[in-house]
Amino acid sequence: MISKNKVFWRFLLLGFLVGPIESCSQRPPLPHHTFSDEIRLKTTPVKNQGSSDLCWVYALLATIETERLMVGDSVNLSPIFLARCFMEEQAEAAFRQKKGAEAFSHRGMATTALHLLHRHGAQPYDYYHAYQQADVKALEKRIKRLISNGLEKNIAASEFRRQLDELLDEKLGFVPQFVHMLGAEYTSAEFGRSVCLDDEYEALTSFTHHPYGERFALEVPDNQFNSTFLNVPLDTLMAHIDRALFAGHPVCWEGDISESGFSFKDGLADVLDEAELKKQSDNTLQTLRQREFEHDQTTDDHTMALVGIARDENGRRYYIAKNSQGTDNPFGGFMYLSENYVRLKTICIVLPKAAVSPFPM
């Protein structure tokens, strides 16, 4: 959703920094492109997050799935398992700390999903996906009512947890006690450690209100665990993405999709044309990113897994993103994000440390 304030600042900032650009209402339909893939990593089937705000879970797990596939280990993970763990944590904290229903949300970041995986483990998709299309937003409303009623009636914390578990079992299904795979039996925690080690991934961002080379807690509403990100210059961030993909490592991308140039229906995302971008110095692009971030023009709207690089018929560069909004677009649910779009609209990335080090920051 784009606020009036967001629209105002977008026209003001882009008009000042990059000259005349077509407004949202004037922009023509996105053109058709023919793409040639330079690199495309292996992926599991595209999943559908439905009406939920769980893209951060789907994208992080898609990133891990591709990382495992690229080393010859086939794994397909359950987003709804981590979503359930998160909702349990959020609801119990809101109840025990007397913060009320408004403190509960199922929104998060890729780093949130990493924390949950390290704390609770993982489940295979085939073990816990029967309720994949559960209406998570409706479930959120039910949980909020449960929190409010529990606080109003001053019930015991143990009774609240019993009611919460009962509701989650009803709407999401029972969590299997063990995972059986390749003749071995795992708990959720053990299975999680088998697919992702605690210190396997790095989180990067690129903004100028903190020093480069230092970590800081990214100031976005969905950073509920106050995860820290290593701050690097924009060119370094882009170089990390390229280096990772060409080395066979996926990248979990978080950024803004409220632009008129983002269209899931067309499978495309673009902001500025190539000629306009070339007029800008790297410093100006970093300044533009910063101003749009500070004026809520670049917000943490969506998360996807970058799994490749391609060029269109004119030689322009795009990143191939595995989305989680179903398969109903020309690319079976995948999207092509222009290099311009990724440079300007990225909030942060999460990628395997094997792709980051040794490499200059």
The ordered string of helix (H) and strand (E) elements is: HEHHHHHEEHEEEHEEEHHEEEHE
Distance between the termini: 34 Å
Mean pLDDT: 88
* Envelope shape: globular
Let me know the number of strands. Answer: 13
Task: Detail the poorly predicted runs.
Answer: 1-5, 7-27
Structural class: alpha+beta
Rg calc: 21 Å
How does this model look, in words?
The chain is an alpha+beta fold and 361 residues long. It has helices at residues 4-18, 55-70, 79-96, 110-120, 136-153, 157-172, 188-195, 234-246, 274-278, 282-294, 339-345, and strands at 36-40, 179-181, 184-186, 201-205, 215-217, 228-231, 251-255, 262-263, 268-269, 302-311, 317-322, 334-338, 346-352. The strands form two sheets. Strands 1, 4, 5, 6, 7, 8, 9, 10, 11, 12 and 13 form an eleven-stranded mixed beta sheet that branches. The chain has a two-stranded antiparallel sheet with strand order 2-3. A hairpin with a 5-residue loop joins strand 10 and strand 11. It is globular, with a radius of gyration of 21 Å. Mean pLDDT is 88; it is low at 1-5 and 7-27.
